[in-house]
What we know:
Blueprint (H helix, E strand, L loop, with lengths): L1 H20 L4 H20 L1 H10 L2 H10 L5 H11 L5 H13 L1 H13 L3 E7 L2 E7 L2 H5 L7 H17 L1 H22 L5 H8 L4 H13 L1 H14 L5 E2 L17 H15 L1 H12 L3 E2 L11 E3 L8 E3 L6 H19 L17 H16 L3 H38 L4 H16 L3 E2 L12 H5 L5 H20 L2 H11 L6 H7 L7 H20 L2
Parallel strand pairs: 3-7, 4-6
Antiparallel strand pairs: 1-2, 5-6
Helix pairs in contact: 1-2, 3-5, 6-7, 7-10, 10-18, 12-18, 12-24, 13-18, 13-24, 14-15, 14-17, 15-16, 16-17, 17-21, 18-19, 18-21, 18-24, 21-22, 21-24
Amino acid sequence: MENILQDVSTVNSFAHLKYAADTSSNDAAALVLQMEKLSSQVSNQTLFFDLWFKKELDKNNVQRLIDSISAVYREYLRHKRLIAKYSLHESEEKIINTLEVTGLSALIKIYDRMTNNFEFTVVKKIGNKKIIKTFKNKEKLISLVRSPKAEEREYAYKALFKTYKKNSGVLGEIYQNIVTQWRDENISIRGFTSPISVRNIYNNIDDSTTDTLLSVCRQNAHLFYDYFLEKAKLIGVKKLRRYDLYAPISNSNIAKFTFKNAAKVVLDTFHKFDPRFGTYTERLFRENHIDSEIRNGKSGGAFCYTVSPQRTPYVLLNFDGMMRDVSTMAHEFGHAVHSMLASNKPILVSHAPLPLAETASVFGEMLLNEEIYKSLNRQKKQIFLAEQIDDMYATIMRQAFFTIFEIEAHKHIVEQNVTIDNIANLYMNNLRNQFGNSIHISDDFKWEWLYIPHFFHTPFYCYAYSFGNLLVLSLYQQYGKEGKSFVSKYLKILSAGGSEKPETLLKDCGFDITEASFWQQGFDLIKMKINKLKEYE
């Protein structure tokens, strides 16, 4: 099984990396499609093993197998057996796999095709004149929400949500069908206890742990109320509008970096934390596994791609010399280090589960930010802190409230005869709970939920961002208290890959993620940063 998985991963990786290097290549796109078909065929051909272990083996023989096998596989098999409770017979699973191509997957493709082809019209008023500009690229429009000009931020959001509202009938119908199908398959047929439990079980996280995380996030929403009131002062307004949430507090850049200088800063930071961090990162450069230039046709954003435990990961960046690009570099190199630290694990258990997948990447950013912060003058420290807190809001609180909305939406759509307007109002209430009276929220934001692809692609995925980022903040607090003695425990977490259940792994290292007090440490760090920002007034 592992040999098959390794071979499929290798050819799949080649296709996807080739396509990422040039998305305009028809040959690369055709190869990706060919590999996806191959993966589906292999999955169906090897399905019998999963179902044999999950359904046909009795409890005693399962335990005998788990006890006799290498310890590294035990959690993997235990988790498989847990999922067995929700598995169907082989013929039924094949039917679901086949129908999904024209069912759920088809709905998602329709959503993607529609939204990727949206055009957005920005109407600016200058005196008595109207200037109309059309954006065919959503990312270029979205970049304006961080514009230093208030009117540009407002125009960008209005253009975005006007288009989604115009198409809300179809998009909302797609969402309702996805939610209904999610419940029909997972609750009615498979027997999961709740819609979010599906994601929790596949993430190998207990429902109670996720409940605790979301509860602590709710209780700390007020921290960001304070921050948004402070930010309003910094940008010179009485009260922020939701349009202003990501407004920069200054037009000046913190610093400009060449790729060489950025790489040196990140490498030095990683070496300082632990030599293994630096040495593994150097391997990426030595083996030429980094694609950093900006060019036409290349995939946007950034990622780290792990082919198999035996191969050094590949990192894609679009480096433009800004501070954000250096942070992205540290983030993706962190992912690569995580993979390399777990490379002694078999491919079946080398990947960390989703909630732990950001443990090295975000920690790498935190280490870098600390080093950069020390080198800045007072004014730039203020700018840098505000940017960090903006990111903490976006990756922790925003994602937690996305998940809270999903829980409510899945409940209402199935249990009540709701309209698309009802769902939009539900989302608006979620925003009011999230922001309190700290900012003004205009009515167009009630359509924002239609713009969040995770709601359509992977329900309840978003809490993993809150989990991963808040986990790292809490761990970073511990690093501040313990110093070098923390490092060995942290490396143990990364080296485990996916071979242990997250709650068990972290508890063995002295961190109890089932307790609210653990997560509160992360918010305590956020509070410290907000208070530090206030000192720079």
